[in-house]
Structures
1.
Amino acid sequence: GAGVSQSPSNKVTEKGKDVELRCDPISGHTALYWYRQRLGQGLEFLIYFQGNSAPDKSGLPSDRFSAERTGESVSTLTIQRTQQEDSAVYLCASSRASGDQPQHFGDGTRLSIL
Amino acid sequence: QKEVEQDPGPLSVPEGAIVSLNCTYSNSAFQYFMWYRQYSRKGPELLMYTYSSGNKEDGRFTAQVDKSSKYISLFIRDSQPSDSATYLCAMRVGGNNRLAFGKGNQVVVIP
């Protein structure tokens, strides 16, 4: 079985542009998470999905950030009007269900804002 | 004070040595504790997953949790060059889905 798949693996864009990052979770995993890893920092939680609803979006840093998920499958994280401080690796994880199941990560999208 | 503190290192050890890593935390509600290994330009890979205090062993890896001291450790025995990576501690409250991570500890095992 494939692991968590993220695309693109790298994205370079100009300040002010919108970007869309995609995550394809492990098949059968109903829970999906987005984290951000800035250089020299630990992973920061952004948002959690159970199915296609997002019971916890408290980690989204501003209203420029949004995410959606279709069914129990692909999720997209959208950053509007990107700023240089948005440069980071955006990591997606999935787990069998919410609660006590371990989270398995993809390799991330490395986002650079010029 | 950050929820999870982890000295980022780096830590260099000779091949065959024991690697000792640790994290401290401030939230006494944390119940689940994890160690992830992250190679350069890759996602974190789950190494150890423990609940409550005590030791858990898996091959060359031992995870320890001391909830009374809010302190967790990871030991790697007989370290190999392939163990060179960044090790991240993570933890969460039971029934809550967000993980709180340490900054990560870069380990280099020298052949």
Note: Chain B has no helices and eleven strands.
2.
Amino acid sequence: AQSVTQLDSHVSVSEGTPVLLRCNYSSSYSPSLFWYVQHPNKGLQLLLKYTSAATLVKGINGFEAEFKKSETSFHLTKPSAHMSDAAEYFCVVGPMWGSARQLTFGSGTQLTVLP
Amino acid sequence: EAGVTQFPSHSVIEKGQTVTLRCDPISGHDNLYWYRRVMGKEIKFLLHFVKESKQDESGMPNNRFLAERTGGTYSTLKVQPAELEDSGVYFCASSHGEPPGLAGRDTQYFGPGTRLTVL
């Protein structure tokens, strides 16, 4: 069984300041982990993914996330927020092995970027 | 390369009616998935096709939902009869398909979703 907890439903930051979106996961086996983003009226876009290579994963648009097994965390960060980063972000856990491919989503974090 | 497309983008129907949602995966992707997000809830898995076969339908809520993927290309999801609690956004995703030992590399690419409103 696997689950994901996004610790903040809403995060507000000022443009140019750092972004931190928190995610904790639970899995009975080594997971694959993803962050997806959904901009208004758009589909879900993959930001980055962890699949057991480097624990620090770099994604698109300057985002990165660090897999910390001891803390069961996969927090998403960005050094400097842009207005275009305003969106809803989903932390997602999936299988690392096997035929099952269902993804388990967190409840989402709405990021607001203030001018 | 075209992404995953879904039709319609919005659908408003009355309780008891039938609605059919369509998904066209990325060309060459054998794996196709349906997910949905009902109001205020997480995005939940519904089912997974490998080509035309249902690999996993553990997330289908009840027998009012019927998914098909004839010929292993596009897929349809029919809701009959629709109930109020079926309102939400239905997402389709596709992936190339990796062997079981490399499941973690099998990235799912999502479409824009169909927003279904049942009145």
Note: Chain A touches chain B through 29 residues (CB under 8 Å).
3.
Amino acid sequence: EPEVTQTPSHQVTQMGQEVILRCVPISNHLYFYWYRQILGQKVEFLVSFYNNEISEKSEIFDDQFSVERPDGSNFTLKIRSTKLEDSAMYFCASRTGTSDHEQYFGPGTRLTVT
Amino acid sequence: TQLLEQSPQFLSIQEGENLTVYCNSSSVFSSLQWYRQEPGEGPVLLVTVVTGGEVKKLKRLTFQFGDARKDSSLHITAAQPGDTGLYLCAGVRWGNSGGSNYKLTFGKGTLLTVNP
């Protein structure tokens, strides 16, 4: 069964460093998302992406964040200068088409900023 | 104020018991999805309900979407230890489906423990 994959599973970085989190969405899906979950808190929307552009972003998704689909399979989230408060699980999700509500999530990348 | 309130927050029951968990809001949703999440893993989609009043069954799990599309429930019959996990409801708010965005708003979840 097709699934969303994410790498790495765990990333440890120092404050101020850049990190890139990678996702491979399900192959026939057209809509892509990043969410994050701070330990003990609920899952929060960061950004949605369709047709090679951001369709919506939350207030969390400031200028330090960017997303890219560099090729036909990968979808990346870059944090330019990480802060301690960026420590969280980051989930990628994807969805097929216009009227399909179902989003499928990857296993997540645990980002630890020290 | 939480947009999606899930209750109870924690539930510990014995194997074989029935249970219901709730997801409530004052807002209308285009759809609600139920996910199950294990520690350190991503949410796994269980079901999507789209039509007000809709009932969907997945083996021993029954999901219902409220008539007004503001609430949903998950009922588990004869719970088993394998049902243990965090159950999350997440919805697409009415009006957020415009432009095909469909961003999800999540509740905090119900942590279910089924004891053998």
Note: The mean pLDDT of chain A is 94.
